[in-house]
Amino acid sequence: MTWPLYTGGKIDAVQKLREAELTGARAELAQTGERLDFQLVARYFGLRLANVVEGLRQSQLEQADRQLARSRRFETMGQVSAVERLSAQVSRDESARDLVKARRERESAEAALARMLREAGVPRPTSPLFVLTSPIEPLAVWLSEAEVRNPTLALIKSKGQAADQGIAVAKSDRLPQVFAFGQYNLITTHLTPIEPNWIAGIGVNLKLFGREDHAATIGAAQARKAQVDALEAEAVNAIRGSVETAWLRVGQAREQFQLFDSAVELGRENLRLRERAFEEGQSVTLDVNEARNSLTRAETGRAQVAYEFVVALGALLEASGQIGRFPEFMKRAEVRL
Hints:
Layout: E1 2-6, H1 10-76, H2 82-117, E2 130-131, H3 139-149, H4 151-172, E3 177-184, E4 198-205, H5 214-279, H6 285-319, H7 326-332, E5 335-336
Antiparallel strand pairs: 1-3, 2-5, 3-4
Helix pairs in contact: 1-2, 1-4, 1-6, 3-5, 4-5, 5-6
C-alpha cells in the first residue's frame, strides 16, 4: 500500500479542476436553456402577432364586403356610378389577398412553434402581446445583473479557473512527492530468514531527468490562461453591448407603441365619418377605402411594435441571465393586445 502525503499541490489542483469543469458544464446547460427560452418567446409571440394581424385583415375584409354591398345597392338606385362599385370591388379583392397572406404567415408561425415544441398538433397561444408603459429598471442595474448571472460569462470564468489549476498541475511535476508505504506478507513460507514479514516507511520521489520539458508545459498552461482572460474581457464587452442594445430597444418600442394611440384613434374616427359621408352621398368609395386601410395600417403597426417590445425584453432578459423573470414582466404589463 502507498499513501501520498505531499504531491506538490497536484491533488488539490486536480480536485479544483474537476469542480471548475462541473461549474462550466452547469453554466453551459444554463446557457442553452436561456437561448431556447428566448427562442420560445420569439416564436410564441410571433404566432400571437400573426393571429392579431389575421384578425385585423379579416375585419378589414368584412368591412370591405359591407362597403361593396352598399356600393352595389347605391348603384342600382342610381346614387353612385359603376366606377364607384368597381373601386369597392377592387378594394375588397385587395383585402382578400391581404387576408390570404396573413393566414399563410399564421400557419407558418404555427408550424415553426410546433416544431420547436415537438408537437404534432397546432399550438394555440393564449397569452396576449403586452407592453409595459412604465419604464423598467435602469441600465446600470441590468449591466450589474448580467455580470453576475450571464451563463456565457460564467462558462468562461470556469474555464479561467480550470486554466489556473492547469498551471498548478504543471508546476507540481517539478516538486518532490512524499508518500507513506507499507507491505505485509501473508504467505511466509518462501521468505528467507533475513526477509521481514512486514515493512513500513516514508518515501520521497523526485524526478531528476525526464523527456518532458517542464518549462514548456508550464508556459503552455500560462498561455491558455492568458487566452481565457482575453476571451473573458471580450465576452464582458459583448454582453454589456447586448444588454445596452436590448435595453434601448425596449424603451424605443415602448415609446413607439404609445405614439400609435393617436393614429389608431384618428383612423377609427376618420373611417366612421367617411362611411357616413358615403351613405349621404358626400364621399366616394376611394375615400372610404383609404380610411379603412389607414386604420388597418395603424392597428397592424401597433401590434408589430408590441411584438418588438416583447422580443427586445426577452433579449434583455437573456443577455442578463434572467429569462426566468419573463412571466413577472407579463404580469406587470399595463397594456395587452
